[in-house]
Structures are given as structure tokens and as C-alpha cells.
Amino acid sequence: MQRINLGEFEELVLLIAAVLHDNAYGISVLQEIEAQTGRQINISAVHSALDRLEQKGYLKSYLGGATNERGGRRKRLFSVTASGAKALSDVKEMRNTLYDQIPKVTLKLNFV
């Protein structure tokens, strides 16, 4: 397995970008993270993570069409690249492998 260089927040942003598919941009990613996790974050953190993920080749960005809603400004939309999809798959596999190695007694202790 290739080493994946993803921080916890980067993984979350990459997952949300994948969930949003063709509608992933700064505000939509922020809102979806808050809706899915209840976690309060700021938009600067989201933009920084999106930029880092693009630099790592896990996301690519393009400008969407101008809208009246945004005063004629265009959205910078993000989509997951093949490398990003592979990174998500590898991280999921690693987590599942580790989870499967946890002794059942350990999991039962946590729910009592």
C-alpha cells in the first residue's frame, strides 16, 4: 500500500468534496462538514485544506459560471481526482483493517 499523506481534517474535506460531487466549493464544503459532524469550523481552514489537497493532486478546481446570487462572481468548484479517489479508498482500507484487529472485548468495554 502506498503511503497516503492526509491529515484528519484534509481527509474530512476530501470526503465531503466527494460527497458533494459537482457542487463542492468553499461554503458548500463548510456547510456539509457542519451538517455531517456538528463541528464548527471557519472558512479559512476549509480553503486552506482545499488548496493543500489540490497541491497534493487529490482535488482539481475549475471556475463555475457567474450567478446573480453571488453578485456575478464565479464559484471555484472542486472535484476529486483519480489520485484523490485512490487515497480515500486506501485510507478506508487501512482503517477497516485496523478496526478489524481490535479485540471484541475492547469494543464491548466501550459500550457498557
From TrEMBL:
The Transcription regulator PadR N-terminal domain covers which part of the protein?
19-89
User: Which superkingdom does the taxonomy of this entry point to?
Assistant: Bacteria
One Pfam match: PadR
Cross-referenced InterPro entries: Tscrpt_reg_PadR_N (IPR005149), WH-like_DNA-bd_sf (IPR036388), WH_DNA-bd_sf (IPR036390)
Name of protein? PadR family transcriptional regulator
Organismal lineage:
Bacteria, Pseudomonadati, Bacteroidota, Cytophagia, Cytophagales
